[in-house]
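Hi R.,

As promised on Friday, here is the backbone we talked about, encoded as structure tokens. Could you run it through your design pipeline when you get a chance and send me back a sequence?
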């Protein structure tokens, strides 16, 4: 049973805090979340996570000023558990990519800035040139999202170029495997067969390591979305525009290339899609809602799509009619997928594509319902002496001496966005103990007051496996005026000013190299000998990832040295892909 007392933990949410707007949003959202958790998490042996999926070909544009309606934050009821955002044609010109080596790309930064005040944390991200996949989840779900891995497949120029292809993220959600696949397939009317060939190639090449589900289609649920580039056959321009003007979209459904392919392509077997009750999302004159008036006069088409697939479908006799197909589907084991909305967003005009979103509810029985690590902390810390925490390990948890416990400000963006940390050290004497205690020193604590969350980071699993409810810190101000240490390596990019943060932040040290370094520098202080943050040398055993919090050199707090790593794969909580060489433009 999950231990969340959300309302009680946030009753003093805005008290003596510099970031009142963020914390007020947290309280407003959380006041409805207690009832929501009782219904969703403590229900009759099942859980019903809600997922908000977005796909958008942004056409190299910068993010719009306001993404509230696209994210549904203006009408949401607080029940969304996860956001999955798939973008295509994110600006990947050489000068932009060089900036992305030093900074989080603008789109990731905007999404984190907009979602973090509502309690959403970046779980993982994956970048391949213009393709970007972001996965967010409510912070209290983090311990139940396990086995996170990402993959990329290039299909452009015969597989050598990443302007086309697919990026994916897979994970276990409360014990059920889910894969999110964001694709950008070949363009133009005549390339329908090439699109199918590229999709098959992506499915064949994307294989995940160390999991029961090895391929994309081996997962319990697959969500496939992106700029799939399928067009409308046979109908001429005037017929298509007339159907759009008169909201007679069904005329175009039967000529849609993807719908036609479902009847003939084996690889599409089991994939489902809600009815297309919104206008075609391509191609528009940028800055308008007017379909292409250029010399090319592209015929409107539903290029931007969101589909899903269940690994084992119900008996054929349970199929529903075509008009309502795919609104509800279920596994024979009891898993169900319900689509609540499927729509485009005409108000966004920065690209020649319109974004498309869909909201799903997944219902499945419990397989995992307790965290691997339970953290216990007092409701308030009023002095340095109060800064202790206890943690209990589940019997099946494989602990590492490189695990650490982070202290996060309410509204944190990703697992490295901590204000302080301690190592969850493991002495031989307490190896078999179930309960352990750690203490934060004054240097590791934030200056001033506020509401915070504590998270236990597993080095072996490369993710947060235990969190607390929010609690308050009210420490007396010290004589010297020093600001709290913001550990976020997700520095947003600015065209005129470059800021590089020098605190080390990688998820786990590289054990062998780091221990050699320790012995070579035994005269250093304890804070330097074990690395300046729980960050470091994982970058040496796993390339840091694009759009993820990246690390600096070991003992960065002692030496303040900055190092950048270049690559194409990215995660905020990267799975331990130690034998897998990935590229990444992280710092």
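Update: got your reply. Pasting your designed sequence below so it's all in one thread:
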């Amino acid at each position: 049973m999950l231990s969340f007392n959300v309302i009680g933990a946030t009753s003093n949410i805005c008290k003596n805090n510099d970031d009142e707007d963020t914390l007020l949003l947290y309280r407003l959202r959380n006041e409805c979340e207690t009832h929501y958790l009782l219904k969703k998490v403590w229900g009759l042996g099942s859980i019903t996570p809600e997922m908000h999926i977005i796909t958008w070909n942004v056409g190299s544009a910068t993010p719009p000023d306001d993404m509230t309606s696209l994210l549904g934050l203006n009408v949401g009821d607080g029940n969304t558990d996860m956001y999955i955002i798939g973008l295509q044609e994110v600006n990947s010109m050489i000068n932009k990519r060089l900036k992305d080596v030093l900074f989080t790309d603008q789109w990731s930064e905007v999404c984190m800035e907009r979602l973090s005040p509502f309690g959403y944390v970046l779980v993982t991200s994956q970048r391949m040139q213009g393709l970007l996949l972001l996965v967010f989840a409510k912070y209290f779900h983090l311990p139940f999202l396990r086995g996170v891995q990402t993959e990329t497949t290039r299909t452009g120029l015969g597989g050598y170029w990443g302007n086309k292809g697919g990026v994916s993220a897979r994970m276990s959600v409360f014990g059920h495997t889910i894969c999110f696949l964001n694709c950008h397939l070949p363009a133009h009317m005549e390339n329908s067969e090439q699109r199918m060939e590229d999709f098959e190639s992506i499915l064949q090449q994307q294989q995940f390591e160390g999991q029961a589900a090895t391929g994309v289609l081996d997962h319990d649920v697959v969500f496939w979305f992106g700029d799939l580039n399928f067009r409308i056959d046979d109908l001429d321009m005037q017929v298509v525009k007339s159907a759009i003007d008169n909201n007679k979209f069904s005329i175009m459904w039967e000529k849609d290339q993807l719908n036609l392919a479902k009847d003939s392509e084996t690889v599409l077997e089991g994939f489902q899609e809600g009815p297309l009750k919104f206008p075609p999302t391509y191609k528009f004159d940028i800055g308008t809602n007017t379909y292409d008036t250029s010399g090319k006069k592209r015929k409107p088409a539903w290029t931007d799509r969101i589909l899903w697939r269940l690994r084992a479908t119900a008996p054929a006799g349970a199929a529903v009619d075509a008009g309502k197909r795919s609104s509800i589907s279920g596994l024979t084991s009891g898993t169900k997928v319900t689509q609540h909305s499927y729509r485009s967003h005409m108000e966004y005009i920065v690209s020649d594509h319109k974004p498309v979103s869909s909201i799903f509810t997944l219902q499945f029985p419990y397989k995992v319902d307790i965290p691997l690590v339970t953290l216990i902390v007092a409701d308030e810390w009023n002095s340095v002496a109060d800064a202790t925490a206890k943690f209990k390990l589940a019997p099946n948890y494989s602990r590492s001496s490189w695990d650490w416990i982070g202290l996060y400000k309410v509204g944190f963006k990703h697992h490295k966005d901590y204000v302080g940390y301690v190592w969850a050290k493991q002495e031989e004497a307490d190896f078999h103990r179930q309960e352990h205690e750690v203490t934060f020193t004054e240097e590791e604590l934030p200056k001033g007051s506020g509401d915070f969350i504590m998270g236990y980071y597993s080095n072996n699993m490369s993710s947060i496996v235990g969190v607390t409810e929010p609690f308050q810190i009210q420490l007396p101000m010290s004589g010297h005026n020093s600001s709290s240490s913001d550990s976020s390596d997700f520095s947003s990019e600015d065209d005129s000013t470059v800021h590089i943060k020098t605190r080390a932040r990688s998820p786990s040290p590289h054990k062998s190299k780091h221990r050699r370094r320790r012995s070579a520098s035994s005269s250093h202080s304890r804070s330097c000998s074990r690395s300046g943050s729980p960050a470091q040398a994982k970058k040496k055993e796993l390339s840091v990832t694009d759009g993820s919090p990246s690390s600096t050199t070991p003992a960065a707090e002692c030496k303040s040295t900055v190092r950048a790593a270049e690559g194409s794969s990215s995660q905020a909580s990267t799975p331990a892909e130690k034998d897998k060489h990935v590229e990444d433009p992280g710092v």
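One thing I noticed while checking it: DSSP finds 13 helices and 23 strands in the chain.

Thanks again,
M.
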